Amino acid sequence: MRWTVNSERTLYHDRWVHLLAADVSAGEGRLDHRLIRSRDGASVLAVDRGRVLMMWRHRFITDSWGWELPGGGIERGEDPAAAAARELEEETGWRATAPLRPFIRLRPLPGLSTVRHHVFRTDSPAYAGPPVDGFEAERIAWVPIADLDGLIDGGDVSEGTTLAALLRLLAGPPPECR
């Protein structure tokens, strides 16, 4: 059954997040629901010699550490692939040497948020220099693909977009990435 939005009202809005209350009809019932609108995100799965470029990061919201792919928000009017390439270099100091290829798209929280994440793949990136955003990660490392199952099983990879991309990588590349 399709849910119908009868009305929305802003609860909070800044440059990062737009929190709304929605009056929603679902069949015979009505719900007072919350939703979050925010910029879409773009990340890069950089692969080279059987390794993936990852960042060891602390997330203060959950007070947790984990391996993540480089990525961030897509600016207004910015192409998702351009945003991914920008984030790759800003956060890691590595630059794609060929056009990024779409790898996976996902909606991490469709029951709460409109956000879409675009993950692109690049192979054999080139080192361009130190990261511009050096505060983003405790360390940046090339993690062997053979180690990914253990990192996932051990809880060292739990961020949703990274997890989805790595599981897709371990399952085998989609046709457009072959």
Question: Descriptors for this entry?
Answer:
12 strands, 3 helices, 7-stranded mixed β-sheet, N-terminal domain of TfIIb, elongated, 3-stranded antiparallel β-sheet, Nucleoside Triphosphate Pyrophosphohydrolase, 2 domains, alpha+beta, 178 residues
Word description of this protein:
It is a single chain. The chain has about 180 residues and is α+β, with helices and mostly antiparallel strands. It folds into 2 domains: about 5-35, Single Sheet (N-terminal domain of TfIIb); about 40-175, Nucleoside Triphosphate Pyrophosphohydrolase (Alpha-Beta Complex), CATH 3.90.79. Helices cover about 15% and strands about 45% of the residues. The protein is elongated, with a radius of gyration of 18 Å. The termini are far apart.
Number of domains: 2
Write down the secondary-structure element order: EEEEEEEHEEEEEHH
The CATH architecture of the largest domain can be given as Alpha-Beta Complex
Please, what is the CATH homologous superfamily of the largest domain? Answer: Nucleoside Triphosphate Pyrophosphohydrolase
User: What CATH first level of the largest domain would be assigned?
Assistant: Alpha Beta
Amount of helix:
10-25%
User: Which percent band covers the strand fraction?
Assistant: 35-45%
- Given helix and strand content, the structural type is alpha+beta
* CATH structural fold name of the largest domain: Nucleoside Triphosphate Pyrophosphohydrolase
Radius of gyration: 18 Å
Q: Could you report the average pLDDT, rounded to the nearest whole number?
A: 94
Q: Report the strand count.
A: 12
Number of helices: 3
How far is it from the N-terminal to the C-terminal residue, by CA?
A: 38 Å
Outline: elongated
